[in-house]
Design brief:
The chain is mainly α. The chain is built from 3 helices and no strands.
């Protein structure tokens, strides 16, 4: 549960903005999307390795964005 501390003089728009930012940082929506379907650990590991290889190739200059 997210708790937002707001002062009495604070605008509701500012409080809503704080809530949205805190919600995004907590990554709740990302966790819900991940839980919608089961991915095997080997598949998850394989995608992480492929992402790391891709990032490494971009960093070394072999692939241009």
């Amino acid at each position: 549960m997210l708790i937002i501390d707001s002062k009495d003089c604070e605008n509701i728009d500012k409080a809503l903005k704080k809530y949205k930012k805190k919600f995004e940082k907590s990554r709740v929506l990302l966790q819900l999307r991940e839980r919608q379907s089961f991915t095997k650990p080997s598949v998850r590991r394989r995608t992480q390795v492929l992402k790391a290889v891709y990032k490494q190739q971009i960093a070394s200059g072999k692939i241009e964005k």
